[in-house]
Amino acid sequence: MSPQAQEIIRKYTEISGTGNKHAALASACPGIFNIGKALYSEFQQLARESEYAAWTLVNGYAVNHVTISTHRLKSHLRSMKMLNQFIEENGFKLNSEGGVLKVSPDGLLLQSSTVADSVSFQFSDNVTESVPCSYIEFAERLLLPQYRNLLDTEYIIHLPWNIVGAFFKPNGYKPFKMPFWTRKSCPRVKEFHRRDGFEVGNADKIFESTSKDRLTRRAAA
Q1: Cα separation, 186 vs 188, whole angstroms
Q2: Strand segments (E) across 21-144
Q3: Measured between alpha carbons, how far is 80 from 72 in angstroms, rounded to an integer?
Q4: Shortest CA distance to 212 belongs to which of 62, 58, 101, 91?
Q5: pTM attached to this predicted model
């Protein structure tokens, strides 16, 4: 990065003081640890060199994004293609950089993301500009080849409904039919059976969710 950009980052890092020690709290409660409002020219300088540095300059310790593991969902939406269709049908805009669905070279990691929301931000020199804030990422991790024989569903153990039991009465035991049911959910697939890791090629495109030219998360009506 240029010396000018480094100086801007250094300036606001110092202003934030010990805020980095409480980043988790600050991300959940925006405004508690403020890094200070920058000049619009400083924002522009960082945006030219690093959009993520510019994003941090205006959002501070806020959460950049959260990731939902779609393969853990308990409905048809656990399929990435079905989920993307559902999101778009409900009026949300998905990041189309490199295609809406990002697929790793091995085909085992599927990812997509919404376009970040935008907020109106007033800089210290009274310039007001729309800036990107947070977005949601979706990731489906498929089974590794050596585990494809495992069931990617849950199987249920059932015990019979009618079991003859007995209960005690003063005049002796009396047989009766007791409705008895045991249901045990036994997932066979564990997380370590799935494709793990970070895919750089996908991530570069996912990060475009906060790009300045993708400010509106809602699709145009």
Answers
A1: 6
A2: 65-69, 102-103, 109-113, 118-122, 128-132, 135-141
A3: 11
A4: 58
A5: 0.73
Q: 39-63: per-residue pLDDT in tens?
A: 999 999 999 999 889 998 988 888 8
Report residue 204 as tokens: 């570069």
**How, if at all, do strands 109-113 and 135-141 pair?**
antiparallel
CA distance 131 to 97: 19
Q: Is-contact 189 147, C-beta < 8 A?
A: yes
Which DSSP string corresponds to 152-208? SSEEEEE--SEEEEEEEETTEEEEEEEE---EEEEE---GGGB--S--HHHHHHHGG
Joined together, the tokens standing for residue 203 give 């991530």
Cβ atoms of 133 and 62 closer than 8 Å: yes
The token pair at 147 is 């585990």
Tokens of 23: 């980043």
User: Token match 């010396």: residue?
Assistant: 3
Q: Are strands 128-132 and 118-122 parallel, antiparallel or unpaired?
A: antiparallel
Q: Which two tokens stand for residue 49?
A: 């060199």
CB count within 10 Å of CB 88 equals 13
In the numeric block, which tokens belong to residue 64? 């950049």
Q: Strands 135-141, 128-132: parallel, antiparallel or unpaired by DSSP? A: unpaired
178-203 tens-digit pLDDT: 444 444 445 577 888 888 888 777 88
